[in-house]
Amino acid sequence: MADDRLSIVRARIGERIADIEARMPRLDSQAISSRMNAIRALAAEHGLAALEGLADYGAHHAMMPGCVQATRACLDQMGAALTSKDQARDRESILAALSVRLH
């Protein structure tokens, strides 16, 4: 039962990620940040720590110069975060990979 519930949550988050990807050229920084925060909140509620950390990073960096590059990099990593089996451990490695990519 818990696995079914988590699958539904992952599907919803996947839809939100796809929505951001599709609308990104037309979204302003505030809209991107709000959508990332919505993903972060849903991930936090369901114990998806890797995805929560990545969405938090994306929400904050959406408000900074160069937000398009940071947002695209976050979106690229979200698939791995969404399917992670070890959320706590993978959170650090995904955020580290993102940091290396952006710097």
Description:
Helix content is 83%, strand content 0%. It has one domain (2-102): Four Helix Bundle (Hemerythrin (Met), subunit A). The relative contact order is 0.15. With 103 residues, it is mainly α.
Largest sheet, in brief, is:
none
Rg measurement, Å = 13 Å
Number of discrete domains: 1
Output the structural class: mainly alpha
Q: What distance lies between the first and last C-alpha atoms, to the nearest angstrom? A: 42 Å
Q: Which architecture does the CATH hierarchy give at level 2?
A: Up-down Bundle
Q: What's the tally of helices?
A: 5
Q: What fraction of the residues are assigned to beta strands by DSSP? A: under 5%
Specify the CATH class.
Answer: Mainly Alpha
**Uncertain residue ranges:** none
Give me the strand/helix succession.
HHHHH
Key terms:
single chain, 103 residues, mainly alpha, Four Helix Bundle (Hemerythrin (Met), subunit A), globular
Brief write-up:
The protein has 103 residues and is an all-alpha fold.
SSE topology sketch:
Elements: H1 2-23, H2 29-45, H3 49-61, H4 67-83, H5 87-102
Helix pairs in contact: 1-2, 1-4, 2-3, 3-4, 3-5, 4-5
